[in-house]
Amino acid sequence: MKKFLQKYSEFMRGRYGVDDLFYFLMISTLILGLFPNFLLKNGLGLIRWLLFGFGIFRYLSKNFTARSKENAWFMKVFRPVKKEIKFLYTRIRNIKTYRYRRCPKCHQQLRLPVRKGKHTVVCPSCRHEFEVNIRF
Ligand SMILES: [Zn+2]
Q: Are 16 and 32 members of one domain?
């Protein structure tokens, strides 16, 4: 086992390895693998293998500059998506205690305590007053 790890370590020396794009590609491959019938029906099975192959190619690549550029581009696109996913998770976690609404004037996200019915809300950043209806 130790010899295998040493050989693997020597093999990986100077290679790019893992980054956020690698994780994204591998997780996408796994998720697509959960729906094999859907992929085969729509002829998309190849896409899964292309994602997997690209991930492995990047993992083993020795061209750090190109791989870093790809990852930087990916993070530029993915960072806002990741932020929205985190916010969605927070909303779900706090569903019993808070509701989230945007101020119509400055678009600031407001966290409001759950009180059913219509209320007047004052935005803390722009002082704009607006009506909010919390139904459930
Ligand atoms: Zn506002």
A: yes
Q: Are residues 85 and 111 in the same domain?
A: no
Cβ atoms 112, 136 nearer than 8 A: no
Same domain membership, residue 53 and residue 75: yes
How far apart CA 87 and CA 105 sit, in angstroms, is: 21
Q: How far is the CA of 7 from the centre of ligand 1 (A)?
A: 59
Q: Where in the sequence is the domain holding 135, given as residue range(s)?
A: 98-136
Please write the tens of the pLDDT for every residue from 52-65: 999 999 999 999 99
Q: What is the pLDDT of residue 35?
A: 83
Answer yes or no: are the C-beta atoms of 103 and 110 closer than 8 Å. yes
Strand partners, 110: 101
Q: How far is the CA of 112 from the centre of ligand 1 (A)?
A: 14
Q: Is the whole-model pTM more than 0.85?
A: no
